[in-house]
Design brief:
- It contains seven helices and 13 strands.
- By secondary structure, the chain is of the alpha/beta class.
- The longest helix is centred in the C-terminal third of the chain and has 23 residues, at 193-215.
- Mean pLDDT is 90; it is low at 1-6.
């Protein structure tokens, strides 16, 4: 019997009402961390098409693809990682770091692997490496955010799982709450979700007023200054 962690569970559907940019803005307003931390650097893209958003708790692993395992089949088996996933809160995001000096020489995810991950309540995958079987992944609505695509898995083998990984500058620990969309991936401090949502809602209301002012026939710089000041006063 596997029991999920007992920390408070945020309402994930409320977070999905905002894109990663607006959640990042709310985190910045609350000064929860430095403004250049907590998100991936450029290079991550959804290779399965469209503009999907995935939100879930990180299940992590490290993979190598360039060379065979050092000693036969001594590398960690995928089945061990799959079994470990059951101990993590759902929904889950598979976060796979390709630790080769040149990531992307082999696919860390294929259609079969994705089907298994989806059955284990993973809503998508994020990797600095490569994935393959793109049309099949798209058809099964399993978003894959990666830096590369390729046709072969080469020597792909897992070397660690359940450890801290790094994806394009974002350090991810198992269980971290992650949000990925067309802009990249963001880590959300789960203990502050209530405040983050409050600020995001308040800022959204102020932004709507500014946009309406810009679109309407009564635009004025004086009114614009007032509206922007109100936006900046949200805390």
């Amino acid at each position: 019997m596997h029991s999920p962690p007992s920390e408070p569970v945020p309402n994930l559907s409320e977070i999905l009402a905002f894109d990663t940019c607006k959640i990042a803005n709310a985190i910045e307003v609350l000064k929860l961390r430095l403004q250049n931390e907590g998100f991936t650097r450029p290079g991550l893209r959804c290779v399965t098409g469209g503009f999907p958003a995935i939100l879930g708790y990180a299940v992590t692993s490290k993979v190598k693809c360039a060379d065979p395992p050092m000693r036969g089949t001594s590398h960690l088996e995928l089945a061990d990682w799959w079994a470990k996933l059951r101990d993590r809160r759902a929904p889950r995001i598979a976060v796979i770091e390709d630790v080769d000096p040149e990531p992307g020489q082999g696919a860390v995810l294929s259609q079969m692997h994705a089907e298994i991950l989806r059955s284990l309540l993973c809503c998508g995958v994020v990797t600095n490496g490569a994935v393959r079987n793109i049309p099949s992944l798209a058809a099964m609505s399993f978003p894959a955010f990666s830096c590369h695509v390729t046709m072969s898995h080469a020597y792909a083998h897992m070397v660690e799982y359940g450890v801290e990984v790094e994806i394009l500058g974002l350090r991810v620990k198992p269980g971290d709450l992650l949000y990925a969309d067309v802009h990249g991936m963001l880590s959300i401090p789960v203990e502050h979700v209530g405040d983050i949502l409050r600020v995001a809602r308040e800022r959204e209301q102020k932004l709507v007023k500014i946009i309406d002012l810009c679109h309407g026939g009564r635009f004025s710089f004086d009114r614009l200054r007032v509206e922007i000041q109100e936006l900046e006063n949200v805390q």
